[in-house]
């Protein structure tokens, strides 16, 4: 049975699967390495991922291509997290957890300023703006329907409110971002006594 299945497999299927696994492993290792140090080299990332230079450069011909791939991967994961969180949590908790993921993403982005510059040059910011706004809108609408977020906020305003995540330079970045995100959440919370 196994032999028959192998005989019917397409010859390139295993190679493609291995290549996809290598690419995914390289991206994960690159993300971790670049979080620790924005100076991580292609060579050091290849060694950590357990792949040769040829494999690394086949997937990512230069450092900018690798940085852009990490950027794209992280933004897409952030976008995909919104409906997943809503399926598992209350709307307000889903919004808070999504902000936590945004903070983690911002930390990566902060650590790889070159990726941000490259993304801007490649116009990726515009490419992902609408999907990010859609993810925030999904979360806000669920919170509004549950009566936990004030009805007069929109996704553009919320994204502007949390833009501090990209600008923080101080050593206690994580503690400060947590505190500031708590302030944002408190500001978004619906209160019966709030004046309209």
Please name the defining characteristics of this protein.
disordered N terminus; mainly alpha; 196 residues; single chain; 77% helix; Tetracycline Repressor, domain 2; Arc Repressor Mutant, subunit A; 2 domains; 10 helices
CATH architecture of the largest domain: Orthogonal Bundle
Number of beta strands: 0
Distance between the termini: 70 Å
Structural class: mainly alpha
- The DSSP helix count reads 10
Outline: elongated
* The level-1 CATH class of the largest domain: Mainly Alpha
CATH fold-level assignment of the largest domain: Tetracycline Repressor, domain 2
Please give the largest β-sheet.
Answer: none
Low-confidence stretches: 1-9
The sequence of SSEs as H and E is HHHHHHHHHH
What does this structure look like?
Helix 2 crosses helix 5. The chain folds into two domains: 61 residues, Arc Repressor Mutant, subunit A (Orthogonal Bundle); 134 residues, Tetracycline Repressor, domain 2 (Orthogonal Bundle). The radius of gyration is 20 Å and the shape is elongated. The chain is built from ten helices and no strands. Helices cover 77% and strands 0% of the residues. With 196 residues, the protein is mainly alpha-helical.
